[in-house]
């Protein structure tokens, strides 16, 4: 008689416990959701009025990563090094940050003029690009374009660009008597001030002591108010701001252009948009335009700014070849949008995706019964 020995390599495994099955399912769901969010679609909400009236505060969007292609993570990896690597330092452990190259997987579309785009804001230099605040703006110019704005009208390569239908401008509307009739008219024309209770604009006095309302609205609404008997005048408000490239390094340093342009929000340019492979001759007249490209966006080392010129390792740069494409992004609420006119170009590797669909819209100023903007549900973004 012989004993049959069980081969441990072929013995049946014990069935998974219920808790293990739940844990495996949860891990799979998290990994699948992460991959879907990274590679296909991601949900966003609109928190500010910089894109009104095209997008409203309280709109919930789907943003497609498939259009331009998903991009690999840009957060540096913390890599542990062995004790032998740092022998003699007295350290028992050591690590360093390594920035891996960034790649964009193929998409089925290029970034085009007039696309509504989500991107990592360029000026938050304290974070890697993919940990920064996400902005949503309209792409008004692509790499290789020449941008100019004249009296609020965008011109590309000398020709008028497309004007979005929801484009807004900020006006001061002087009235004889701020009253309920005026407020009703503002409401009927869709004028909202999200900083005020109920979203209704409040009457204020301008620098000359004239009473009225500072409002952001479409040109059609402004034309309507211009014809009303209670309106004395309606004029465009031009806030005095310092713009790119006079301020070469928005919020990060005091780097200023050696050749001030004194552009305004409505009269801006002529500004060339850098294109991959383009070689730029640098001079005090244009160095401020390219400073952040050389110093930050393209990860060159030893770059500094001195006397209106770009230096690398102490040597003045007189030319530079651009390594990626760049874009100009602007909000549709043109006087109430911090955008490329303030901080310059958006690098291609900062672009997240294209906003394609509003799946829900909630009015923050409406009562319970009118909270949902039903007409905006499942509407395509243009």
Automatic annotation (TrEMBL):
The UniProt record lists the keyword Protease: yes
Domain Peptidase S26: from-to ranges: 20-160, 318-359
Keywords, in A-Z order: Hydrolase, Protease
Gene3D superfamilies on file: Umud Fragment, subunit A
Enzyme Commission identifier(s): 3.4.21.89
InterPro entries: LexA/Signal_pep-like_sf, Pept_S26A_signal_pept_1, Pept_S26A_signal_pept_1_CS, Peptidase_S26
Primary localisation category: membrane
Localisation: Membrane
Enzyme class: hydrolase
Keyword Protease: yes
Membrane association type: Single-pass type II membrane protein
Catalytic activity annotation: Cleavage of hydrophobic, N-terminal signal or leader sequences from secreted and periplasmic proteins
Highest taxon in the source lineage: Bacteria
Homology family: Belongs to the peptidase S26 family.
Alphabetized PANTHER family for the sequence: CHLOROPLAST PROCESSING PEPTIDASE, SIGNAL PEPTIDASE I
NCBIfam families: sigpep_I_bact
Protein name (database record): Signal peptidase I
